[in-house]
Design a protein that fits this description.
The protein is α+β, with helices and mostly antiparallel strands. Helix content is 43%, strand content 18%. The chain contains 16 helices and 14 strands.
């Protein structure tokens, strides 16, 4: 028996043992390389995803003087999120929540239509694991060579190849962690600061944290992340039905399995020659012939492998193909089942997604660049003055999201003859107060409101603070209250 056969025999024995024990050691998976249209599509998507990830922080976008020029930036120092022409403030967190909800609904819709294509093609874990496995094959060889190398005693050739492999893995992981940091700090600046030792401590900490995370998850954990750490496989069952397209083995055509050539007059046999190539190319090590499984990420590499075998045996391709369970059941009976993209499940997702897109688009287009928040003083609640009037103190914050300085008129509604003045300012109290706001800034000041309410039955009276932009005419209103002693009836003059 050859060394490879012995290793495969040992792996099968261990797999049988796992089926009889709840807890068992991890079985190392040695995916075999495969060529075909699916593999080419995966390479194209992998290259596109990695290019976007590594290059995007370096894309420049002019926003005006004294503004960050990075196209995509989550600037923690200024608490802004920049995405090309879009600028989100902390006050816009609800928009971010809406975008995340929309992304989740989109994922639900895609999964219900064509299965776990996110997991098989664009998930970061899949992308970097694919890259790491390609490097492993280029250095240590394909499946059989790697299995033989790991089964043999350590020698100089094995040691230097593994050192080179892990060195390249760490190099890629390091640049992955560094690129992630660039989404939070200006890329050219943080790159220079990093290599000159002038970057902030969190930059170094998180760079190495993401380096070790990428190296561990893509280089070592691999399929364990998809099977045990990721919650999505548990959720996907609720998204799939018999009309969802998934990677499917056509058992009606492939069974019963029989190795070797089909002899005329021999035993009945299906198209499957039981070569197990679909198992050896699977990155999670499952047998697609057992049906839809938790570990299957719908990468479709087993399709390329099986089609290659079908070509060699002279049988039609597509023994493993993207198909629905309903169509497979119909084919088994010799009937036809139409593709049903539009069904109650998908229509619910489409409707929810459409509403979310319309709502978010409307919110973004009508989003005001002017904001106002008012916080009333808690101590003291009010100050009685000698003339019988009352004075309340407020802290006002004016948010100017535009790129130009603003001039605003501040007034109050609900308190006749109320006088407004900036605390510790030289402005004369009046019914309307002119305040200035710097571009792309939050201006904070303390406001004193003096009034003689007609009556304060329960010790408070609702008031509205109105802020109007003198240039554009846009205005915003903040609801608050004016406090005084219960039973106050206007005081004495």
């Amino acid at each position: 028996m050859s060394r490879i056969s012995k290793v495969e025999s040992r792996l099968r024995t261990e797999q049988d043992a796992v089926q009889h024990h709840l807890y068992a050691d991890r079985l190392r998976i040695y995916p075999k390389s495969v060529r075909g249209p699916v593999r080419r599509i995966k390479w194209a998507i992998l290259i596109a995803c990695l290019t976007i990830y590594y290059v995007l922080p370096w894309v420049r976008w002019y926003r005006g003087p004294n503004q960050p020029s990075q196209a995509v930036l989550l600037d923690l120092s200024t608490q802004r999120f920049y995405f090309f022409s879009l600028e989100l403030w902390p006050q816009d967190i609800w928009l971010l929540a809406g975008i995340l909800i929309m992304a989740a609904v989109s994922l639900f819709l895609v999964t219900s239509l064509i299965g776990r294509v996110w997991c098989g093609y664009t998930c970061p874990q899949t992308v970097w694991t694919d890259l790491f496995m390609w490097i492993e094959r280029e250095i240590e060889g394909d499946r059989n060579e790697r299995m033989a190398r790991d089964a043999a005693p350590l020698n100089a050739d094995t040691i230097w190849k593994k050192v080179v492999k892990h060195g390249i893995w760490l190099f890629i992981a390091f640049w992955t962690g560094g690129a992630w940091i660039m989404y939070f700090v200006d890329a050219p600046t943080v790159t220079v600061d990093f290599w000159t030792g002038e970057a902030a401590t969190p930059v170094y900490v998180f760079t190495w944290l993401f380096t070790l995370t990428t190296y561990g998850l893509a280089g070592w954990a691999r399929e364990q992340v998809c099977t045990y750490m990721c919650p999505w496989p548990r959720f996907q069952a609720a998204m799939l039905d018999d009309q969802s397209f998934t990677v499917t083995y056509q058992a009606w055509r492939g069974e019963p399995r029989l190795r070797g050539k089909r002899a005329e007059g021999g035993p009945a046999a299906g198209d499957c020659v039981d070569c197990s190539l679909c198992v050896t190319v699977c990155p999670t090590g499952i047998d697609i012939r057992d049906g839809i499984q938790l570990e299957c990420i719908n990468c479709g590499l087993c399709m390329d492998a099986c089609n290659h075998v079908m070509e060699r045996t002279g049988r039609p391709k597509g023994l493993i193909a993207w198909d629905t369970l309903a169509r497979q059941a119909a084919k088994k009976l010799g009937t036809h089942e139409p593709i049903r993209f539009f069904r109650p499940r998908t229509m619910i997702y489409v409707t929810a997604l459409t509403i979310a897109v319309i709502g978010l688009s409307t919110a973004l287009l009508t989003r005001s660049t002017l904001g106002l928040s008012v916080l009333r003083d808690r101590a003291p609640l009010f100050v009685p003055l000698a003339d019988g009037s009352l004075r309340n103190g407020y802290t006002l914050k004016i948010v100017n999201k535009s790129q130009t300085n603003g001039a605003y008129d501040l007034s109050i509604s609900g308190l006749p003859d109320a006088k407004l003045a900036i605390a510790e300012g030289d402005t004369t109290p009046g019914s309307t107060l002119r305040v200035l706001g710097s571009s792309d800034e939050v201006e904070t000041f303390r406001l004193l409101v003096t009034a003689r309410p007609a009556a304060l039955t329960d010790g408070s009276q609702p008031v509205d603070f109105i802020l109007r932009d003198t240039t554009t005419g846009a205005q915003t209103v903040y609801h608050s209250v004016f406090m005084g002693p219960a039973g106050y009836a206007g005081g004495t003059r």
